[in-house]
Design brief:
Elements: H1 4-15, H2 21-36, E1 54-61, E2 65-67, E3 74-80, E4 88-89, H3 92-98, E5 110-113, E6 129-133, E7 143-149, E8 155-161, E9 168-169, E10 181-184, E11 192-196, E12 202-206, E13 217-221, E14 228-231, E15 233-236, E16 244-248, E17 259-263, E18 270-273, E19 275-278, E20 281-285, E21 294-298, E22 300-307, H4 327-341, H5 345-367, E23 386-390, E24 393-397
Parallel strand pairs: 4-5
Antiparallel strand pairs: 1-22, 2-13, 3-22, 5-13, 6-9, 6-11, 7-8, 7-10, 11-12, 14-21, 15-16, 16-20, 17-18, 17-21, 19-20, 23-24
Helix pairs in contact: 1-2, 1-4, 2-4, 4-5
Length: 398
Amino acid sequence: MRTLQEIRNNVANTTRESQINSLIDEYINLTLQEINDPGWAFNNTYEHLWSFNRRKKTLKITSEETVLPRDLDKISFIRQINSPSRLLYVPDDVFYRYIPSPTSTGTPLYYRLWEEEGVSTRLSTNDTIDLVSSSASDTSAFTVTIVGYSTMGYIQSEVYTLNGITEVTGTLTFDSTRPLRVSKSGKTTGYITLHEHTAGTTTVVLGPEERSPRFRILGVYPIYSPATGTITAVADYSATVAGTVAVTSASHGLSTGNLITIAGTTNYNGDFSITKIDDNTFYITETFVASETGTWSTYMNLYLEYYTRIRNVVNDADVPDIDEKWLWIVRLGAIAKIQQYQKKPDDFVATQALYSAGVRSMVKSDIMNYDYIPTLRNVSRRSVGVVQLDDNNYSLTF
């Protein structure tokens, strides 16, 4: 019993329900989401973050805000990579009490979480939206709905009927300053790409199994303000340092180890860590092709550890994200729901009790993972106090 089909068949045979396969699939996925947030199985308020849902990622920061990974559910911690130091989370009500109009720039010390948005980037200008699938199989059986705001400020929605790899053109103009919500009617074969009609900028790409993606926005403070510069020449530097090119940028102000993004060239666009040669030149690891001009801008990396959710199983061959030794708990949860559907209260109560006990056992087992460190602990001292924030002072008072 590993895959969705195997679990479904086992549950159907146990409950003698062979005509409600789609409903059994829903019960299996509902059980997985209950396991993801197991507080209901305990008598007191309890939240457990599963170690197998923990992930890590490097975030590229180029301004005040950045989009968090689309599979993120909860943040564990964020720290600067170069310092390194941990960023402190500050709720919006506390933040704006001290800084009603934040303007200060510098190295980020605090972070906030912004609203979830239905697209990874907002529209660059008021525009209509077009979409297309990467598969000819995605035809009129599937629709995509976009809900947003008109330029007059009222909510509006548009429904698109897919036409395979032929682009579908929208008719409603959406306000670029307001978020959009995008949803899909079902699982598709290909990827669905949405883009602005006039600018052509991609707003979001929906995966085959995604129905309604959400993106959480990270805001940092002090606001990161990138340095910028102009590239006037590129030269082969491999005779001095193998596999490098020298970049000429007058009075660049960079230091060895700074991270930059090069743009506007033909052969050298991308992200690089630089090594300073002198005040007007630095080198990067790249193969020399020809001298070019362009621009550069700095960025900062943040290290993020976060938790995902247990994903739903959609295809017959899908396997739940949890260890297979716990799949019997998923089976019990689905059986309990079917017994409730069958109006068998005694059977339901008994099975639900076993299911709840199984979830508690699973939590206890996960806690006993000795290599798992749920938080970054301060071993030097225990800090208590309040956060002191203003636009010229960022400190903690103990």
